[in-house]
Every structure is written in C-alpha cells, then in structure tokens.
Amino acid sequence: MTTASVAREINLTDLARDPYPIYRHLRDTAPVAWVPAADRYLVTRYDDVMAVERDQQVFSSVEQDSLMIRAIGPLALLRQDGEAHQRLRKAAETPVKPRAVKTEWLPRFRQNTEALISAFVDHGEADLVADFAAPLAATNLGTLLGLPDATAADILQWSQAIIDACGNYADAPAVWARNDRAVQAVDAAITEVLPYVREHPDSSVISAMLQAGLNPDEIRTNVKIFIGGGVNEPRDVLAVAACALLSHPDQLTDVLGGTTPWKAVFEEAVRWVSPIGMYPRQVTEDVELGGVALHAGDRLGVVIASANRDERIFDRPDEFDTRREVKPHLAFGGGPHFCLGTWVARASIGEVGLPALFDRLPGLTLTDADAVRLHGWVFRGPLSVPVTWRA
Predict the structure, then answer these.
(1) Buried b / exposed e across 292-317, counting CB within 10 Å, b at 16+?
(2) Are 217 and 238 a contacting pair, CB within 8 Å?
(3) How far apart are CA 70 and CA 168, in angstroms?
(4) Structural contact between residues 60 and 281, judged by C-beta atoms closer than 8 angstroms
(5) Cα–Cα distances in Å, from 276 out to 51, 64, 139?
(6) 283: which strand partners?
(7) To 10 degrees, the CA torsion angle through 135, 127, 350, 324?
(8) Dihedral of the CA atoms 236, 190, 214, 142 (nearest 10)?
(9) Phi–psi pair at 146, nearest 5 degrees
(10) Which of 42, 125, 190, 306 has the smallest count of CB within 10 Å of its CB?
(11) Which secondary structure element, helix H or strand E, spans residue 335, and what is its range?
C-alpha cells in the first residue's frame, strides 16, 4: 500500500479541452491520484471504478460540501445511500422502466422526433446540436417529466445552468447565480403543475413521485436531477454518434445496410465519449483502493470517462468502432446508482433519434469536421456539429 501521487500539473482547463491523454497518463502511472485542481482523488482505472460502484458503504454518495447539494438542495437522490436513496429512486422509476418506455413513451418520442426534423428538413443545412439533438432531448424530457408548459428552450437553459453548477469546481460566482435563477424557475414550474396532477394522475415522472408519497420539496429537488442529466446525456450521445458515423463512412455503410445495429452505435458512442464523465464519492473509513491508502473523509472523483477507455478492458479504446467486441461500459454507472434514464436514452436516441436523422436527411455530411469541438470533463459533448444534406 502506498500514498497517492500528487498531480499538481493537472488543471481544469486542460481537462475540459481534452481529458483523455491526461486520463491515460494517470491510468498508467497513478490510477488513484490526488489532483489539487479538482480537490479530490481521481480514480481512473475500470477495476477501481467498479470497486467503488460495488461498495456504497465505504464509498458514499453523501459528500460533504457537495456541489450538487449546493446547487439543488439536500434531498437529491444521487446524494443519498441505502434506504433513503432507494425510497426516492423507487418513487421515480416506474415511468422509466423498459416496459413503460416502450408502451407509453416511445410513440411520443417518435412524434417529437418527426416534428423536429420536419421543421428543418427543407433547409439543407443545420447544426445537429442546436437544431436537433438539444431540442429533441429537452422536448422528450418535458414530455416524460410532465411539464407541458415548459418549452424546450426553458428546459435547455435550466439544464445547462444546473449541470454547470454541479461541475463548478472552479467556484465561479456567475455559475452559481445562473443556477439560482434556474432553480427558482424549475420550482415555480413544478409548483404550478402539482395541484392538477394530484387531481388527475398520469404516467409522468412528477405524477409517479406524487403518487408514491414524496413531498413537494422532494419532488422539486429530484426533478432537477432529471433536468440536469436528462438533457445532456441523450443530447451529447446523439451528437457524438452522428459525428462519429459521418467520420467513419465504412461503419455508416454497415449501419445503413443493416449489418451493424443502431443499438451498437449508441453503446459505442456512449462508451467512447461518456456524457457524464465523472461523479463524486466520499470515503467513510480507511481503505485501500488501487494500491493507495485512503482515509475517512477523503473525496474521490470517479472518472467513468477514463474507465470506459481503459486499455486493460477495451481494445483500441480511443477509437470509435461499432464492430468491437461487446464489453460492459460504465457510461450509466453501476450498482445502486445505475442511471435511471438509461432506458429512456437508449430508446429515444438509439431506437428513434439516430435512425430518423439518417433516414430523413439523405446525403448527410459534416460541413467541416475540424469545426466540431468537444468540451468538458465532468460533462462532455460536442458544442456544435454543422452538417449539410440533399434538401
């Protein structure tokens, strides 16, 4: 057992620009390393990430001075463990189970997708992020949550403010100010719908939470969890997958010809660039992880984006390859905190969004591959994907 290496040279700007060379270096030299810029130990190897996932007693989600708690409040299910976490999770999970997604939401996701594409299909050019992936994710999420009066623009604004705050390791005051405004707006929108849903229960997440007995504060807090992760994951995996296919025409040919299923495209995209790249944990007792001695109170950054490119698990991990041998990635986490929105993302993007995009836009092409820029390390995705097609 050793003490952790101190990676003073790592800064948040470099991580946001391109974290993968840094993660590779850490996996090879210091897989559990203290990174002062992040104020925590970064855990970068697949097996160590899995060890954390499996033991919520030692590696707790209840982190002191949590950015998420500061952003949206102390009742967030992602910052609870044990029975408290299970109670909140169970209240929200019925609408997002596979059967509900297939029977209740898939037809509505198709309607949302077709309507969005129809609005720009004749233009011959678009930004896949701004014009399709982002509004699709937001529209689908508003439908699922049960916020009929919230526009896609509202949800996108709220989501970005919340996830920026949850990843505000630089403690920027402007980020907290935007988050506070978003939180007030979300709370107002939920407060408005609760009386109606109480009298007219439906299949939405808000209705499920209410029927399960959650109080209004618990509902408001945990809807913000959905708004944070429920936009950026489907948005970014759609944009990454489309860009990757357009950059690998041989793989696109296989997909369009039916040799490679869309499911494989989705799973490879979410492994290759994990939309949620890191989440926090706190150590509750002295323990060894990755050969490093940790102590009660130590804070971890569990870097699933690095684990999903661990060469000890994945062959040629930095390459996008829809034909690769299937191995379990960690893009949706694991253990008790496995992402609630997994089946929603797989259906709305893997089954609907991506196939519809390539079916409705013949000759889809990247306008300028060099203009596609990814950003972020806690959350990561393309900022813009300009494309053209035969209108």
Answers:
(1) bebeeebbbbbbbbbbbbbeebbeeb
(2) no
(3) 10
(4) yes
(5) 19, 21, 20
(6) 59
(7) -150
(8) -30
(9) 95, 45
(10) 125
(11) none
Output phi, psi for 299, to 5 deg.
-105, 140
Which residue is listed with tokens 């509750």? Answer: 284
- Strands (E) across the chain are located at 32-35, 40-43, 59-60, 125-127, 279-283, 287-289, 292-294, 299-302, 365-366, 374-375, 381-382, 386-388
**CA 138, 68, 309 angle in degrees (round to 5)?**
75
Using alpha carbons only, give the angle 233, 290, 302 rounded to the nearest 5 degrees: 20
Q: For residue 210, which of 83, 94, 102 has the smallest C-alpha distance?
A: 94
* Residues pairing with 276 in the sheet: 379
287: number of Cβ within 10 Å: 16
Give the chain's domains with CATH numbers: 48-286+330-388 (1.10.630.10)
Task: Single out the residue of 81, 47, 22 nearest to residue 280, CA to CA.
Answer: 81
102 CB contacts (<8 Å, ≥6 apart)? 347
Per residue of the chain (391 residues), give pLDDT as tens: 677 788 889 999 999 999 999 999 999 999 999 999 999 999 999 999 999 999 989 999 988 888 888 988 888 888 888 898 899 999 999 999 999 999 999 999 999 999 999 999 999 999 999 999 999 999 999 999 999 999 999 999 999 999 899 888 889 999 999 999 999 999 999 999 999 999 999 999 999 999 999 999 999 999 999 998 889 899 999 999 999 999 999 999 999 999 999 999 999 999 999 999 999 999 999 999 999 999 999 999 999 999 999 999 999 999 999 999 989 999 998 878 888 999 999 999 999 999 999 999 999 999 998 889 999 999 999 999 999 999 8
CB of 364 closer than 8 Å to CB of 371: no
Q: How many residues does the chain have?
A: 391
pTM of the model: 0.94
Q: For the CA atoms of 318, 324, 325, 329, what is the dihedral angle to 10 degrees?
A: 50
